[in-house]
Amino acid sequence: MTTALNSLGEPDAEALRAALIIESVVGNAWATDAAGRFSYITPTTLSDLGTTLEELNTPSEDGSAGWKRLIHPDDYDRAVAVWRRCLETGEHYNVEHRMLRASGAYGWSRSSRQPLRDSAGRIVAWYGTVIDGDAPSGARERFADVISAALERKAAPDAPHSLSLVHPNDRTAAAHAAARAFWTGVPQVTRHRQLQTDGSYRWNETRSEPGYSVSVDIDDLVTDREALAKAGLDPLVENDAEPIRSAKVVESIFGNGWAFDAAGRWIYLHPFALNSLGVTLEDLNAPLRDGHTAWKRLLHPDDYEQIAATWRHCLTTGDHFNVEFRFRRANGVYVWARTSARPARDSQGRIIGWYGIALDNDVYKKTVAALRGRERELSQLVDMVPVQIRRLTPEGEPTFFNKRLLDFFGLDGVADLDKPAMSRLTAAIQSLVHPEDAARLLETVRHSLATGEPYSMKYRMRRADGAYRWVDGRGEPLRDHSGAIVQWYAISIDIDDEMRAQEALRDRERELSQLVDMVPSFLWRLSASGEPVFFSKRMVEFLGLDVGEYESAGGNGLTAAIAAVAHPDDAAKLEAALNHSIVTGESFSLNYRLRRADGVFRWMSGRAEPMRNEDGAVVQWYGLSHDIDDQVKAEEALRKSKRQLEQMIDAVPVNILSFAPSGRITYASKRYLDKVGSPPTHIEDFDALARDLAHPEDFPTMFRRASNGFATGEPFVNRFRRREKDGVYRWIEARAQPLRDADGAIVQWYMASIDIEDEMRAQEALRERERELQQLVDALPVHIWSWTPDGKLAYVNKRSLEDLGISGANFEDFTRVAQELIHPEDAPEVLHRSANCLKTGDSFIMRYRRRWKDGNYRWIEGRCEPLRDRDGTIVHWYQVSIDIDDEMRAQVALRERERSLWQLVETLPVMIDCAAPNGEPIYRSRQLREFLGYELESLDGKGKSRLSRTLDEGVHPDDLAGVKANYAHSLATGEPYARRHRLRRFDGAYCWVDTRAAPMRNAEGAIVQWNVVCLDIDGEVRAQEELRLAQERLARASQAASLAELSASIAHEVNQPLAAVVANSHACQRWLMAEPPNIDRAQKTVERIIRDANSAADVVSRIRALFKQSADAMAYTTLGSVVAEARDLIAEEAVRRRVRMDVDVEGDLPFVALDRVQIQQVLVNLIRNGMDAMDSVAGDRVLGLRVRRIGDAIQIEISDRGPGIELPDRIFEPFFTTKEHGMGMGLAICRSIVESHGGRLWAEKNEPRGATFVFTLPVEAKADHDDG
Amino acid sequence: MTTDDHVVFIVDDDARIREALDELLASHGMRAIAFGSAGDYISANKPDVCACLILDVELPDINGLDLQRQIAEGDHPPIVFITGHGDIPSSVRAIKHGAVDFLTKPFSDADLMAAIQAAIVQDREKRSERAELGVLRQRYLELTPRERDVLPLVVSGLLNKQAAAELGISEVTLQIHRRNVMQKMMAASLADLVRMAERLEIPITHSRRTGGN
Fold it and tell me: pLDDT by residue (tens digit) across A450-469?
């Protein structure tokens, strides 16, 4: 320990250490020796200042301190003076001055120093700190000002916080702490005894902040330990361990010192701290179970780990220790504290211990929070009071505007007002106050500033939006104790609305006074006793007199006035009425005449009302006289004219009613009453009257119209049936018209009604007729159009529109109509003629085609007639178009038919004769006329009938008698006539004719005409004759021909084998005659001879059988085998001719009796025919052979695909052939054979081509065979 | 008459007739070749010997008469028609067109054989005549152009002098040509030469009378 002490050497080491501690807590620090020479300055401060210790310690040439240049010249003298005094007295040094910064600018700083004394109380060194206070200082100052001002106002009578309450022994320390706190801005904590109300002192811990101090009663904590505390506060003791010494040094400035040995064990703690913590050093050093130190339980659990870690770290590294934490006081409360420690080292630099200081900053923390809340509260208070507050310097410069004021002006701060070369006051007044008020205000303010008198003034301030508002501004000075003005506080209250209201009031008053003079009535006032006190200007002008200007012949003024102005007739009445009112307090109202200045009396309507005071006593009478002279005269005139009107109204044949605007009946003319009768008493208004009298059917319409009229004020007309006195409803027309006054307001409704019964009936009838006509017009199946005289379409009936598919609007003049609707072929003619008619006025009739809506044209007959008025002028054209299309078409068709019939009759190659029922010819066709060579008419007038002459002259004499007889018979009986006879032709030759006649009868069956046809059959008769002859010849020839042909055919069939037989016979003969005879060849030849001879014999026998129609050869066999044989016979040929045979034979065919050879021949013949037919066919040649049973027959069909058969009927005739070299016998023989078997053979056409030959063979022939 | 000397063609659609005729001709020692249709006959290879064609009028493909007309253009054997039902127009037509005979079935052995004989003789003559004409033509081709000029004049009966004048040559020269012509044509006499000229169808350009002076 001693060693350690010795090693300290220089006494200023203590100061240095203190400085370092301060530095670690506050930020910058310095130390000087006892002479004031700097031994240490925080290096960052040095660099901030841009200087060195040496420079600072070097005195200037003029003897001033080295740090002079760091201090603002204005502040230097003061600072140096204080410093010198401090050096002498040992007082604490505390100066605020401007200090040069590294930037070259001066900034405000607070510098504070404290002496460090040795045990003898000698000052060994100074240590201190410099706190930059520029920006914070300014803000703090403002803040403090506001707060203090606010506080002072609140607690004006209270004594300021005074040291008087502090125990005299503690006063110095407390004052010191408060000052230190104020100057450094660092909260200071002092403990002192404070006087209680009971006169006792209690220990308090006071936390001091600038402007505030908060005291906490800590008496309970402190008193018991006071002795200990005293010991702890002892000055430095020589034999203390070095860390303890250091701790004590530090402690002398700030609070609780403490020290550890190198191992971190507590060796010293300020007794206060021990006391407040409620522990001893032994407690603290007692290691805990888990290796923590005892002070673990002193620290807040949340902080311990971090503190311990930091501490351990510092122990290891020797770094400075500076932490903030919460610790628990003896009373169990956690409070905030800050501790700083650094190691004490020996000369070798080894750590010999730690010393530190703990600053309890809990109160600080809490008070800061409290202060902030308070500040906010006050600031809000200042800002929120609905008063605009500002503060001025004693010179009148505004330094503070509250928020309301700033908001009002739209400023961010007072500084916004600054303008160059102008005081802030002037600038503010110029820019913020209404120009009219600015000068006055400025003057007032200056006056107050000069005299110290408060001021009060109303002026207009400009709001942020540019609007000026009236305010009531008041300013008062704030004086210090000495009475010197410290500040001016001024407020302004917005009185704009009030001001404006006042102004408005003033305006109204003026207006009222004008009104009184302007109203076209006379206003006057009487005193409560009736003395005239006021006449309005108009009244004075009217009377030519003002109050009192009349002769007051004794009595009161009222009587005099009345005498002067009222008509003598009315004076007494007027006075009596007025007096009555004055006595009773009732309102006055009277009409009377007043004399105008020119002596003319005019009617006045006078009224007066009393004005009463709160007690109800009449104070004054206000009167008004209105000139009603014109009205009165008009009324009179009106009454007169009304009477006249009534007379007139009653005279005119109209029923008149009048109604008040409310609908009340006000008048009914006499006629009305006569006609309708007086309305019952309960009917008083229009509504009821209408309900009573109007026909129920008409009422709704009528009433609605009337209501509408009444509502809108429009005149209205109603037609309805009204019940009259006799109970009969009659149609009337009621017209209502409002009477309006000058303002247009309806005064009266007048309603005049006239009887229109006859008219309505006529109209009704007319309408009915019109409707019927319209129906008629529309129903008629004709088109009815009307035209104006100049050709414009005026009307088109419905049917036209429907039929033509047009709308009337489309067609306005007939040219258009013609173009659009009339057939193009007809249009020009129609146009021409209609135009002509329009010109001449002639009727128009024409048939033409008009287009219907379906686009087809139909024939119509258009007739157009003009309607003329009495003068003969054409008023309208009426056109009726009748559809005659069917008729036209029928006519056309008829004409066409007639024409074609006529042509038919005339061109028919027959001679036609028509005769009357008695046989007289009436018409002869051209053919007949030409044949006869004369016209029918030439027969007339020869004494004989036409018929007789025709017959006598025309019929061949050989036939005449017969013809006449036949004619006579037919004419007599009506039977048709038919006869052939010869008729003489025009050239005299007789020709055969076939004459036929038939009667034409009417519906009753009576003969109306004989129609005669006369056919020239001369050629026919002769041809028939020739034909007959030719046929006879042909029959003979064909008989011969067929015989020859048949024999040729037979010959061929027979000669073939015969020729073979003959040839073979000769050969045989020669073989036999040969030398030697060739027997073999002869033998073979003979066999052939036999064969061929048999073949010939077969043919012969078949021919014989054919001609004998013999069934001898019939044998029962199946057709299948026969067909197969035939197919085999022809197979080779079929192949050679490239014909495919398609044979289809039905199974189970019954046996049929047939001649095998014949049927085979038929089959082969037909098959070969089929093949022949297909020779010329290019495609596939298929010959179908089908055998099947149909009913009782077997049917065999042979079909080919050749060109088919042209003449199916003739092919079976003998000698008919289509082949060049055919005989024409094959099919004839085939048919003969088939028919001999009881079957049929025919041919059919194939589709699409070819022919099928079909033959049948009956099945039932079996029975016959069995029998045979 | 030997079998190889000639051949008889038979065309008939009736097999019985073909058989019988074949047999008959065989019995006469004649060679016969039978055909069922005209087409078969036409398309067949036939020996170039004297021949006769026995042709049925009614054939399945074409009529015998039509066949006759078809082959008329070229050399063909003389035709003997046979028919089952001969009619006069057909026979007239056949004969007119050079048929040797027109026999109606049944015909006699003698008639047929006579017709065949006649036909073969005719064919043989026709053949020899054709051969002779060939020789003449060959001789004619061997004449010089001048000799060919001379020949028509000579056969026209012109005197030597006239012919020489006609050709503008001397009479002597003409005589030399004439002798050469006679020799080359192997004419025994002028009449013989005239006949040859007729056969060769050498036109007689001049008449002695018309051209006489």
Answer: 888 888 888 888 888 888 88
Q: Are B106 and A1049 inside 8 Å of each other by CB? A: no
Distance CA A734, CA A744 (A): 23
- Are A402 and A413 contacting, i.e. CB atoms less than 8 angstroms apart? no
Q: Is residue A785 part of a domain?
A: yes
Question: CB contact, 8 Å: A1130 with chain B?
Answer: no
Domain ranges of chain B: 6-129, 143-211
Angstroms from B196 CA to nearest CA on chain A: 45
Query: Mean pLDDT, chain A, as a whole number?
Result: 75
Burial of A105 (0-12, 13-18, 19+ CB in 10 A): exposed
Which regions of A463-595 does DSSP assign to beta strands (E)?
468-479, 485-494, 522-527, 532-535, 588-595
Residue A162 counted as domain residue? no
Beta-carbon separation of A1067 and B112 below 8 A: no
Q: Are residues A536 and A450 in the same domain?
A: no
A1060 chain-B contacts, CB cut-off 8 A: 14, 16-17, 19-20
The range of the structural domain enclosing residue A63 comes to 2-132
| DSSP annotation of A493 | E
Q: What is the DSSP string of A639-697?
A: HHHHHHHHHHHHHSSSEEEEE-TTSBEEEE-HHHHHHH-PPPTT--BHHHHHHHHB-TT
Q: Which residues have C-beta within 8 Å of that of residue B135, sequence separation ≥ 6?
A: none
Number of folded domains that form chain A: 9
State whether A1059 and B106 contact (CB < 8 Å).
yes
Last residue of a domain, one of A1016, A1039, A1054: A1016
Backbone angles phi, psi at A996, to 5 degrees: -130, 140
Q: Which of A240, A184, A244, A236 is nearest to A209 (CA)?
A: A184
Q: Do B27 and A1092 make contact, defined as CB atoms within 8 angstroms?
A: no
- Within 8 A of B87 by CB-CB distance, chain A residues are 1048
Q: Indicate which CATH number applies to the domain containing A828.
A: 3.30.450.20
Whether residues A467 and A481 share a domain: the answer is yes
Instruction: Please write the tens of the pLDDT for every residue from A318-345.
Output: 777 777 778 777 777 787 777 777 777 7
> Rg of chain A over CA atoms, in angstroms?
81
Q: Which residue has the higher pLDDT, B77 or A1178?
A: B77
User: In this complex, do B106 and A1092 lie within 8 Å of one another by their Cβ atoms?
Assistant: no
Query: Domain for residue A579, yes or no?
Result: yes
pLDDT for residue A1187 = 92
For residue range A701-744, list pLDDT tens digits in order: 888 888 888 888 888 888 888 888 888 888 888 888 888 887 88
Are both A809 and A753 inside the same structural domain? no
- The listed range with the strongest mean pLDDT (A52-61, A214-223, A944-953) is A944-953
Is the domain of A226 the same as that of A358? yes
> Looking at the domain assignment, is residue A842 inside a domain?
yes
Closest residue, chain B, to A1067 (C-alpha): B24
Give the distance from CA A147 to its chain's centroid.
64
CATH among 3.40.50.2300, 3.30.70.120, 3.20.20.120, 3.40.50.1220 for B6-129: 3.40.50.2300
A1013 close to A908: Cβ distance less than 8 angstroms: no
Domain B143-211, architecture per CATH: Orthogonal Bundle (1.10)
Q: Extract the tokens encoding A958.
A: 């050989």
CB contact under 8 A, A1059 and B107: yes
pLDDT band at A177 (very low <50, low <70, confident <90, very high): low
Q: Which residues contact A920 (CB under 8 A, 6 or more apart)?
A: A945, A946, A947
Which token pair is A9? 């050497």
Contact B109 A1081 (CB under 8 A): no
CA–CA min distance B25, chain A (Å): 7
Residues A1117, A1262 share a domain = yes
> Which of B20, B85, B87 has the CB atom closest to A1060's CB atom?
B20
- A986 and A846 both lie in a single domain: no
